[in-house]
Amino acid sequence: MTEASVLSLRACLALLALPIYLLSFLGIWEPFCRKIFFPYFLEKFSAVHERKTKKQKQELFRNLPDFTSPSGELKLLEIGTGCGANFQFYPPGCKVTCTDINPNFQRGLSRSMNKNQHVHYEHFLVAAGEDLHQVPSGSVDAVICTLVLCSVHSVNGTLKEVLRVLRP
């Protein structure tokens, strides 16, 4: 590749990135990504991902009813719920508490709850996996965390919290 080609490619890339630089300079990029772009992108990505992994997820979540408490309830905690892509795989009547560090997923989460009326939505907590202090110890029957452990600050801290909130 010649030096002129490299310079031309750099100029094109800089031109393409100019809106991002401008929004970042104005302090708008971070809120835009967090509130609009990332939730929108994740919802669209989840739809494609779910079509490709549907059979595997059905198998993965098939035994959730086995974790029903002696009272007959099944309380699930999902860490990193995002837009609720897993709800379709949860058993009827289970109670789901959703957590995510990004409160802007609630719009997509509402759409998913409307599509999955078989699930009882308890509430949404803005919380990181490493700090689930809002969830009482021993209060849930199962914890779901798909596509999230790669983005937590501490996998060990998250797994310690999972063990803490699970019913003995």
Automatic annotation (TrEMBL):
**One Pfam family for this entry, by name?**
Methyltransf_11
Task: Specify whether Translocase is a keyword of the entry.
Answer: no
Q: Where is the secretion signal located?
A: none
Q: Which residues form the Methyltransferase type domain?
A: 77-168
Gene Ontology molecular function, alphabetical: S-adenosylmethionine-dependent methyltransferase activity
InterPro entries noted in UniProt: Methyltransf_11, SAM-dependent_MTases_sf, Thiol_S-MT
Q: Which Gene3D superfamilies match?
A: Vaccinia Virus protein VP39 (3.40.50.150)
What top-level branch of life does the organism fall under? Answer: Eukaryota
Enumerate the Gene Ontology biological process terms: methylation
Keywords, in A-Z order: Membrane, Methyltransferase, Transferase, Transmembrane, Transmembrane helix
Residue ranges spanning the membrane: these are: 7-29
Return the protein name. Methyltransferase-like protein 7A
The record's gene field reads: METTL7A_1
